[in-house]
Input
Amino acid sequence: MEASRSCQMETQKRISRKIFIRWTTRVIVGLTLWIWYRLSRFQNEQEKGIEFAHGNDIPLGISYYGRYYLFRTKDSIRAFSTTCTHAGCRIGRGSGDTLQCSCHGSQFEGMSGKPLKGPAIKPLRELECRFNGKTGQWIVKFNSGIV
Output
């Protein structure tokens, strides 16, 4: 009986502390990324269908409105989301015609939404922006991404 017990103990494999910590870390990181992905999709779903109206008195350059900004030139107005394409943080005003993410320092060109400085590599999402002739207002709509 004693011999069979020693044979069973020899065949059991022990997991080293290093392997246990490595696998636990992978599981925690995976769950964190999955939760972040689900929350970001939820935020995008909440924003769909939202419209904002602006009068014709929008100044030239960048007009910042929290969730989006407008860039007006003499000929046109374009709207962009202020959600950074790197990690989803809100971007704020930078210097001149640039916008900057306060989380990781990405900078974006105001006129086109293109990244000027990383870590972001994708441009900001362009939103639908159209002029409503009946009301005389500019309408910014969140449900369509032009980019």
